[in-house]
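Ferredoxin, Methylogaea oryzae. Tokens?
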Amino acid sequence: MANITFSNPDYKDKTVYAVAGSHTQTILKLALENKIPINFNCQDGECGTCLVKVTSLDKKTRMGGPLTEKEKSILVQLNKLTKEAVDKMAVDDLPSDWRLACQVIVRDEDVLVEY
Ligand code: FES
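Tokens:
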């Protein structure tokens, strides 16, 4: 079971529980199901509208799942990721904090999602 806390300066923080074993649910889907007003458009990793910052709330190393090629490309375009950081991620196997909510699959970890 994962706790996902959504945070935005304009709204009250909201923590939702992701279903354990559901490894297909994206942060965006979870937000929409819980009426959290994250901006989105394409829902396919193409537009960058759903940009969020994801950080760990527990002491475990972030899992988060690898970035898709589309996600890396959009994050570089948005200046949230450098090409050097993309290369470093390939070596370190750690995801970046900036993600696209429509591309991040919820894992069994407690995270803070700033939108
Ligand atoms: S909604 Fe377009 S990239 Fe996520």
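Residues 13 and 74 are 27 Å apart (CA to CA).
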